[in-house]
Write a structure and sequence with these properties.
With about 240 residues, the chain is α/β, with parallel strands linked by helices. The chain is globular and about 50 Å long. The two termini are about 20 Å apart.
């Protein structure tokens, strides 16, 4: 999917968005944390909640938040379309100079965002990695194998390619046509960014335990889609 060109504001500003699927017990806490941090940064900002077809009360809670905060926008998928589709919707909805995303599950400390901002003077993307990953052994091992595989296939050097704590210059998406609707989305973005000559750096960030809700990354359907899109992207890049 091609993300249209937008007119970036003259002053530094940031769009922050959260892809969410059934995060009713987390989204308000994540919003409040982001709002507090962004308020202290003193930067023009917008917050975008991307509801990817949740079947719980995520959308209703998001709407309640937006009704009291004009800086909050809601993007809603009528049905669950996948993690990549949720990220694409977030990038498409963003209007500020920079765009940052983290998952709506509350497993990252938004207080670590301000330290990334100075790096944008030198880099186009800050791709973070989890210093103390709070996942089970099986999930962590699977993630390590996936990271090694995609880095090998696309000649990348990332410690944690799927870490959901990334900051971008919004303009990089004006030159990308994204195809991935599933978990391959981060690999696709970073591979294309490097191909286009954008500068990328990596920074370690804290990873917190999930307090509520359930992870979906280990779902067989999610894994199957990731490998199907991996084959498609690899074939496309080689053609």
């Amino acid at each position: 999917m091609s993300i249209p060109v937008t007119n970036a504001p003259e002053n530094d500003s940031i769009s922050v968005f959260f892809p969410c699927y059934n995060e009713q017990d987390n989204i308000r806490r994540v919003y409040e944390s982001a709002s507090r941090v962004l308020g202290m940064m003193g930067m023009e900002y917008e917050l975008i909640i991307v509801d990817d077809g949740s079947t719980d009360q995520t959308l209703e809670i998001a709407k309640a938040i937006a009704s009291t905060d004009p800086r909050v926008k809601i993007v809603h998928h009528a049905k669950n379309r996948g993690y990549g589709a949720a990220l694409q919707s977030g990038f498409r909805a963003a209007t500020k100079t920079w765009v940052f995303y983290t998952d709506g599950d509350g497993q990252f400390d938004l207080g670590e965002l301000p330290a990334l901002i100075p790096l944008m003077k030198q880099y186009d993307i800050v791709s973070c990695f989890r210093l103390n990953r709070q996942d089970g052994i099986v999930r962590a091992f699977n993630a390590w194998c996936w990271n090694r595989l995609v880095c090998f296939l696309f000649r990348l050097k990332f410690k944690d390619i799927n870490c959901a704590f990334k900051l971008y210059k919004r303009r990089i998406f004006d030159r990308m046509e994204l195809r991935s609707n599933g978990a391959l989305i981060n690999t696709e973005i970073l591979a294309l960014a490097i191909r286009h000559g954008f500068a990328v750096t990596q920074v370690g960030v804290s990873h917190l335990q999930r307090l509520n809700g359930r992870q979906t990354g280990g779902n067989p359907h999610v894994i199957f889609r990731a490998f199907r899109e991996l084959i498609s992207l690899y074939t496309h890049c080689k053609s």
